[in-house]
Amino acid sequence: MQTDFDFPRSLDPDTLSLDCEAEASRIAAWMLDTLARLRRRGVVVALSGGIDSSACAALAVRALGPARVFGLLLPEQDSSPDSTERGRALAEHLGIAYEVHDIAPALAALGCYRQRDAAIRAVFPDYGEGWRNKIVIAGGSAGGINFFRLVVQSPEGRQQEARLPVREYLQIVAATNYKQRVRKTVEYFHADRLHHAVVGTPNRLEYDQGFFVKNGDGAADLKPIAHLYKTQVYAMARHLGLPEAICSARPTTDTYSLPQGQDEFYFALPYEQMDLALWAHNHRVPAAELAVALGLNAEAAGHIYRDIEAKRRATAYLHAGATLLEPVIRGQD
Fold first, then answer.
1. pLDDT tens digit string along 40-81?
2. Helix boundaries (H) for the chain
């Protein structure tokens, strides 16, 4: 597999090709070694029904066997029923033990939905029971500063859209981040109960661009596919024989009540193009060459490169651990 230090300067249909069998064996060996170092018996994987968590669960089964992998399905009131059904089908396909835990009551008690809806009503006062919502990103791929728009839909199906003020945007995101953080709390309960480790499921695009919640889905003991582009994760899932419903599903956030693709919410392009753009940026491919590969003009490709860098800067905090006044040396003063 090519590394980011080879720096080839070309793009072709095989740029993101992967020897899936060799890579699956490498990941499985690493998972076994990591568990031994962590002194844990097995792993807990939260199954969203998406490609990333499904591939992670399948790789864990390959490494450890189904008896040492425990799956969790953690829906809430805004989750798509299809996601839960795909997660359940995957667990049964892999032969792993799993549990379905509806986290909506916990989220309601914490004020997740109430705080979110209060911020939405500051923009759309009529928003209430039966309405649906989502946030969409704008600006960065066009060369400007990223900003967000709020989309709401009435029970009758009428949609409205407006630019989100910063205060309301932050409150909506803070409230919805409860979802990932409560899920992670449940994951670690079962990890402690079983003496397991928690698997994090970000692919390279999500990990690099900060598409995760700190102390939420960003928290884990091992992240087996963080080096793989999403295109490669899809290839791995097919190689591992996962159900077609999972292998053909488009990536969604499954966080807001209106349907929402990941590119609509966060990334500048659909994942197939975004993967290629990130790879090209990492390998110092000129923007003009990326433009040809993506069918864009050179200026638009340059905007994509700048958006990649902007997201890296903006989300560096998410990767950072707690800061200390000075290093704490263990074993000596």
1. 999 999 999 999 999 999 999 999 999 999 999 999 999 999
2. 20-38, 51-64, 81-94, 104-110, 112-123, 166-194, 204-209, 230-239, 244-247, 262-265, 271-282, 287-294, 298-314, 316-319
